[in-house]
Amino acid sequence: MSYVSRISRKIGDKTNPLLAKGRREKLVRTDFSIFSNNCWAGSVYRRYGLPYSSPTAGLYFFASDYVKFASRLRYYTSVPLEFIDARESQYADQLREKGELGKPVARLDDIEVVFLHYPSPEEAAEKWARRCKRINWDNVFIKFSQMNCCTEGDLRAFDAIPFRNKLCFTASLRPELACAVHFPGYNERGGVLNDTDYYSRYIDLEEWLNGEPERYLIG
């Protein structure tokens, strides 16, 4: 994370509690469940001072696993977490490059979750289970980003998920992808490296969350 991003995040942590009430008043509903491929969902809940009504906070998925997860949310949130040594992960090489072999990693059937901001498997499992119980399947939003080994096939597969209330942050303009939201500045970087600090520049979050609720019926 860059120095500017660290400062921005610290400012957000300080101001969110002060501004959250006013932001909440702009929302028509506050019972939404946001699923994200990384910590983004948690940053949105903190922005509005809301409880986490989704298990996808403080963690991330590699792209192909997340597309599977988003395609079968009900299934994957119902199967037990199986924690493994990160060195046994199918992404061990990538985790080693990131310096994350000490992070809790769990399997959900055929996919993996990296619990980046959790000190132990026990805490990760407890919060995952607690937040899964809060999911409101009648008002779901799904967010993806072009990161963590994301391929062209992953982008197209996510776009093809038969669910309206979804979006994908992309490093370049992708008009052929119905859910794409361009994050300028990342075109030469091969992916969106940081989507949690400046997303409000590129999407109207209240407009998205205040849209017609969508029930998640697939998977």
Q: What would you call the shape?
A: globular
What Rg is obtained from the alpha carbons, in whole angstroms?
Answer: 17 Å
- Determine the number of helices (DSSP H or I, runs of at least 4 residues): 8
Number of strands: 7
- Specify the biggest β-sheet: 4 strands, parallel
How many angstroms does the end-to-end distance come to?
A: 35 Å
- Catalogue the unreliable spans: 1-9
Our count of domains comes out at 1
In the sheet with the most strands, the strands line up as 1-5-6-7
User: Helical proportion?
Assistant: 25-40%
Q: Report the average pLDDT across residues.
A: 93
Elements, N to C (H/E): HEHHHEHEEHEHEEH
Strand content: 5-15%
Helical/strand content category: alpha/beta
Notes on the protein architecture:
The protein is an alpha/beta fold. The protein has one domain. Helix content is 35%, strand content 13%. It has helices at 3-24, 40-48, 63-71, 73-76, 92-98, 121-132, 152-159, 205-209; strands at residues 33-36, 82-84, 105-108, 111-114, 140-145, 166-170, 180-182. It has a 4-stranded parallel beta sheet, with helices on one face. A 3-stranded antiparallel beta sheet has the order 2-3-4. The longest helix has 22 residues, at 3-24. The protein is globular. Mean pLDDT is 93; it is low at 1-9.
